[in-house]
Amino acid sequence: MRGKRHAALIGVLVLSLMVGGLPTGAKQQGERRGDLEIEAREGFSLDSRSKAGGETDLVVIQFEGPIEEEWKEEIEDIGIELGDYLPDYSFIAKLSEQGDEKKLKRLSFVKRVVPFYPVNKVAPTLRKSLGTTDEVEVAVIGFDQQVDMNRTLYRAASEESIGDVDSLQNARHISLARMSGEGLEEVIQSEDVIAVIPMPERKLHNDRAAKIIKANKLESAGFTGKGQIIGIADSGLDTGDPDDLHPDFTGRIKSLYAIGRKGDASDLDGHGTHVAGSALGSGEASDGQYQGMAPEAELVFHSMLTEKGYLKGEVEDILGEAYEDGARIHSDSWGTDDNGDYGLDSFLFDQFLWEHKDMTALVAAGNQGEYGYKTIGSPATAKNVIAVGATENDRPDVGGDEADDPDTVAGFSSRGTTKDGRLKPDIVAPGSYILSARSSVAPEEEFEELFDQYYAYNSGTSMAAPILAGGAAQLRQFLLEEKELDEPSAALIKAMLISGADDLDEDMRLQGFGRANLLQAIETDFVDETDGLVTGEEATFAVEVYDRSKPLAITLAWTDYPASLAAKRTLVNNLDLTVTAPSGEKFNGNDFFRYPYDDEVDNLNNVEQVWISRPEKGLYTVSVKGFNVPKGPQPFALATTGKIKEKGGGQHIEQGKLHDDKRSDRYADYSFRAKSEGRLRVYVDWNNHASLSLTLYDSQGDILAIKEIKKRKSLVLPLPEKGRYKIRLELEDGPKVSYKLSMSYPE
């Protein structure tokens, strides 16, 4: 940042602001906005495999789709009482007569009826206590919200097996109780009880955010950010002394640069320490309880705060030094409130990221949401960053109505679009009342609320960006270790996060493509195309859908060439995403809002998505076309919740095996005829750690090229003229391999 052209820290840093009531605006029409479809993404919520003996009058009724009032009325006319709604268009219901289930199954809109057994009522963490003398503290939830659950408990369990019981004042059907495992087993037999869960521990810390975006699921699988380096530029880091920092950063500092005050990287504001703790704090000061999202990642930190409270530092220097120190994730919770403009910093971010396509930058959207639309600020308006807005946290006992609904975008979160109409923010993550590391040299008034000497609460998109940066580090670790990618692109990480996001049924100018869900992100299938497309060139894929109950998301993302600051529109290389369903229906990327969904072609954004709430089963044809690529070739990434079956649109889709028994078994040859000069594109996937190479021969048998093949990445080779060619796929290292190969060339 440059001197006085930037606002003072209190105005520039994306800090905690009061959340005001906001007009929601009219909802856009289209498939992209249904929260019922998003719930269906979670699948059938009942663990129907878990059973207990005996009969039950409680069942779960699953409907064919989004619930219609007429369906509920028809069921109630039968005399069946509906209870709680469950995800995947389901209700718990209580049957009153023997023939009720048969009546239900005859209804055309009822998909299935499943018994709701007693053990289905018990949270998995409590099941090991069933029937034992172990004492547990639980919350018991009743079927009928008008019935006092205390009376039910005392009727259901013996006096000696149940202890203290308290009702919730505003929810009489929920009781808090201490009981033995034997009492627990008695309680769940009651037809008036539908759930028993552990008593919540009212501790406020960052694992709230971790649970919301599913970072805790990745951490439990071993993806803790280990081996990853996160860069952060902010106000400072605790004392500024690497040998005497907050315990949560002990042994975690790769580099610490003081660029705002020479020789002084201390955090007199508290913002930078809090941000860093959310991304990668180890939780050392709390025995591991209050961790960041990537508690084993390392940190490169630039302290930007000057003596006068401004932010100082050149974007190129900050990102460049972090990159040289090994950071491939960068978090920036600062910006300018310039109402959607593509400012200088946006340009500088785009320029650096175009030149370093494996660097992912996450930028806070800003806290001007109370002023309405087009309030997102630069550098969050940069095309190639992931602009992060904020949702509410799940912390009502501290934040009240500002932190009581994690499915709602926070009122302070800046809104899109950008001034040239691009969709920003890209994604949202928890940002209100986040508990994270507290700077020991910052005054108390800099924090929203104190927790103890090591931790404090703050709110803002400043808090959301580092939370997702830590999650991105987990995702990158997954790609390196599980998918064996050497240098996953920023476009791939962006596409996976967006395809895996939970739609919150908010205007996309608030939520972007939804709230981050890291577990769903790692479950996407993908292609990381590093060679790219030129104008007129097209890459095609087949994506198979097995499950109609989950929305199909297909996201195309690319790191675009930086825009001219004189331009009114910022997109340079324009790729187009088109998806054709098994039935022949076509969808264009980002054409969400007005049916039909194939009549508008996006020429603004470098992220395009097709999102189908209830997809057909079968093969979808996905096309990525270089409509206009003046600064190409343009690499891209594609991520989908479906399964990529083949790539190319060429003449060969082959499968085979190679092994090292003898020389002739180590390779396979494939011949083809090109109708003109052009390019050969080869894509190979295989099942282990083997190394493969590809040799291209011309019609005379002369070698034109020998290349190493990288798993799940395309290899593009020039074809100098029309005619016959041959490729040889060869096993270089490893005893054996099963592979799938596709190639395309001028037809």
Describe what this molecule looks like in 3D.
By secondary structure, this protein is an alpha+beta fold. The protein contains 16 helices and 35 strands. Strands 10-11-9-12-13-14-15 form a 7-stranded parallel β-sheet, with helices on both faces. A 5-stranded antiparallel β-sheet has the order 23-22-25-20-27, with no helix packed on it. Strands 2-3-1-4 form a 4-stranded antiparallel β-sheet.
Q: Brief overview, please?
A:
With 747 residues, the chain is an alpha+beta fold. The chain is built from 16 helices and 35 strands.
Strand neighbour order, sheet with most strands? 10-11-9-12-13-14-15
Question: What is the β-strand count?
Answer: 35
User: Main sheet?
Assistant: 7 strands, parallel
Task: State the helical fraction.
Answer: 10-25%
The radius of gyration computed from the alpha-carbon positions, rounded to a whole number of angstroms, is: 28 Å
The best one-word shape is globular
Low-confidence stretches: 1-30, 33-44, 48-53, 200-207, 647-651
How large a portion of the residues is in β-strands, by DSSP E?
25-35%
Ends apart, CA distance between termini: 51 Å
Q: What structural class should be given to the helix and strand makeup?
A: alpha+beta
**Tally of helical segments:** 16
Mean pLDDT, all residues: 82
